[in-house]
Here is the input.
Amino acid sequence: MAGGTTMYYYGGDYNPEQWPEEIWHDDVARMREANVTIVTLAVFSWSRIQPAEGEFDFGWLDRIIDLLHDNGIGVDLATATASPPPWMHEKYPEILPVTREGVTLSPGGRQHYAPSSPVYRRLAAELVTAVVERYKDHPAVQMWHLNNEYACHVHADYSDNARDAFRAWLEDRYGTVEALNAAWGTNFWSQRYTSFDQVLPPRIAPASSNPGQMLDFRRFTNDSLLECALMEKEIIRSAGATQPITTNFMGPWPAVDYAKWAPHLDVVSDDAYPDPNDPGSFRTAAFARDLMRSLKPGTPWLLMEQSSNALNWRPSNAPKAPGQMEALSAQCVGRGADGILFFQWRQSKAGSEKFHSAMLPHAGTGTRTWREIVRLGGMLDSLPTFEPGSPAQVALVFDWENWWALDNPDHPQNRLDYLEVVTRWHAALQRAHIQVDIVPPEKVGGEHRLAIAPVLYLMRDEGAAALKAFVEGGGTLLTGPFSDIVDGQDHFLAGGFIQRLGAILGITLEDFGALVPRDADEPGEREARVEGAFGDAVGELFAEEIWLDGAEAVATFSSGRRTGNPAVTRHQAGAGTAWYAATVLDDEGCDALVSHLAAEAGVEPVVAGAPATVDASRRGDVVTLINFGQDDATVAIGGTDILSGAEVDKVTLAPFEFAFVKELAQ
Ligand code: GLA
Here is the structure.
């Protein structure tokens, strides 16, 4: 999918409207110096493109697109709908979004629109139509960029626009108000509806809102944003534009189910801002990269935004260490990206992001940031592209609907952070240098030999069936704790817990045994020690009471109220094996279990015997190795070091150093 003159996309958001036109010539000269191939234009340009309703000013945009094209630089052209211009709220204040508490969000920042507002949608459609008609045949335009970071600031809108659209969405989903009542269990707390017109978004109420209403509102919010994106996509395609279409994701973002979005996009792209101060952030970054690779299997993705150096929006904004930005960029390439872009090209001189670093810093080209930007551009310019990304042998189940259901209050354990638990398993797999696909349960199968499905509380019937078939067909599954508790509607199933997977797991579950978090200032059991075949570990948050019903106990609890009870179980089912963990294991426990499970399932690591702080990933026969540790690291691997051209039987990497090694045929 690569464009421009090189094989990788390289560039960033470019906001030329913030600068006098004479600066533009310096911009493109510097872009060439840095080997920039593409810039994202017009993300926040609505007020400049359309100064009043029905009035368009494309002159400046024509000139900059032509100038870029004359210099061999491509354009990822935004539809510019992410931030409505002042005339819109002046004339149509009803487009503004409203919080759950009933506060209308004012203009003056960005993203101040209600996604289901018919007025916003009409005006957005007019804008997109005008932009696409004008530029669809321009040879510089290589990609379309829908809106920007959907739901970044407004995670959900509770306005009357949302109310009306939510009612229509529910009517479409359930058909009758009786079906809605059944789905939401409205005989509880006198919530029975007699008309869809009585239903509201789950605005702040005196007590917890109905969990079915909350879950459906998350689904509705996702769908209403996706409708906006698909409206723009439809305009682009019906105008005859053929360039690939993307929108920038934000890693595992809670508000939007990217697994549902990805099939509608030609290219998956992601924005990533790991905290330079956090030594573990390269692990959470790795999770996001694997998620992007998994959203569209076999297709390269793009890093659409990262920072060249410090941010402006954390409480304290540390600079990136020398080499850290390039190491994080290499991590994207290794995990399937064919492009590295930044927010933004030239650092703003005014506005709330003026302290946000950029490719071309405010202090100019005599800076470390600029040297690193030029060096990275040069590196990508010389790097061959690799196969998109090998299918992994391990599936890590990550499911937005489950996340949303877990986020609701009134559970046995209300301090569970689903993403934290899933990324904990991902980090253990990363330390073991095992390549992972991150998928919803329905996507487990194919090349996968091992599936890990932590805290899969909400399990749709299709997901449960896929996991069962996976085990019966010879796969190894680990799930638990607090898994297979409710169906897709957040209802218990008749007969107790673990109703779909209990038979293959060979256990029953009686009680959840919630633990108090270790750092909480309150009485109660804080952790449960676990002893077993894979060593000792510590469990948190749950110490469930499970009973063996065919399974063997691989580990037992050795402290607290569950002492002597099974903590980790294993059961042969069909041609495979199903494991259950009755607690949230700490890192040591996850590491030990991963090595057990991988051995049992015959999973091959990308490299064997590398230090845990080396990040390893595979694209075909190319292995990317990055040292995120504090000390030099040596990895035994035979092949060609692509950057140096040297034949190697091992590579030694300084902190933040990386290598792409084309392996010798085995
Ligand atoms: C997001 C936005 C950008 C910019 C960056 C700053 O990713 O898409 O416009 O605001 O954050 O980090």
